[in-house]
Design goal:
Maltoporin, Chain A; mainly beta; about 250 residues; 7-stranded antiparallel sheet; about 0% helix; 11 strands
């Protein structure tokens, strides 16, 4: 639910920078149904060194239909191997807790501030040239911070602030215009879960209120993207709704 005609637009890939992978925080409104399936194999060698291989498949759809076999967008989200507790490193105070890994992955840091508060944050930046056509130039930086305050064993308040600065010069590729400015989003979300105390415990059922705004220079970025749609303009927008997130 939105206070403008742009209802439903949101999610981590809402801004013009998403055209080159520039995501913002996803707490609150999302336009898709997103699912992940993770497979992990762990092993321990005779010398005590541990190894792990992880493969995660992800699928996202922007449809309310319950039968979507013809609309799948399956993707390999993670595929990496890691080594830890390496026997050769145990005599080194600097390296004994090191983990080596290679492959494709994404993670965020999660830190407990005190008994009732946690923080998770991410910083992402990119600069690329000649990406789609000769001479194009894409630059963006995103900072996302999520706080969680445990109120009871089943209820916590979650807060997320996302800020993204971008300078995009697509040179007309795919109908995209130049865009330079900032986007920010603030979300408040009372969250129910089986047990509070850990960022990764799921499922979570959330009520959310999101306020977002952006520079007017980002309007009309592309007629085929959110930033270019009639009624979805800078000046501030509230969105209210319910969100479910579960992992298994």
């Amino acid at each position: 639910m939105s206070n403008k005609s742009g209802a439903g637009r949101g999610g981590p890939y809402v801004t013009p920078a998403s055209s080159v992978g520039g995501a913002v925080g996803h707490l609150g409104n999302e336009v898709d149904t997103y699912m992940e399936a993770k497979f992990t194999k762990e092993n321990q060698a005779a010398n005590g060194t541990r190894s792990k291989y992880t493969l995660m498949l992800a699928d996202g759809l922007e449809t309310p239909n319950d039968w979507t076999a013809a609309q799948r967008a399956l993707n390999v989200r993670k595929a990496y191997a890691e080594l830890s507790h390496l026997t050769s490193f145990q005599d080194s105070p600097l390296l004994r807790d090191a983990t080596l890994w290679a492959g494709k992955r994404f993670d965020r840091d999660n830190t407990r501030l005190n008994q009732d508060w946690r923080i998770a944050q991410a910083l992402i930046a990119e600069q690329s040239k000649n990406r789609y056509v000769p001479g194009d130039d894409y630059r963006y930086m995103t900072h996302n911070v999520r706080l969680a305050n445990e109120l009871t064993s089943n209820l916590e308040m979650q807060y997320e602030l996302s800020w993204q600065a971008m300078d995009l010069n697509a040179l007309g590729y795919d109908g995209r215009q130049a865009a330079k400015g900032d986007y920010w989003k603030l979300t408040f979300a009372p969250t129910f879960k089986a047990q509070t105390g850990d960022f990764f415990i799921r499922p979570e059922l959330r009520l959310f209120a999101t306020y977002m705004n952006w520079s007017s220079d980002l309007d009309n970025f592309s007629a085929t993207d959110d930033f270019g749609q009639k009624g979805f303009k800078s000046g501030g927008e509230w969105q209210l709704g319910v969100q479910m997130e579960t992992w298994f």
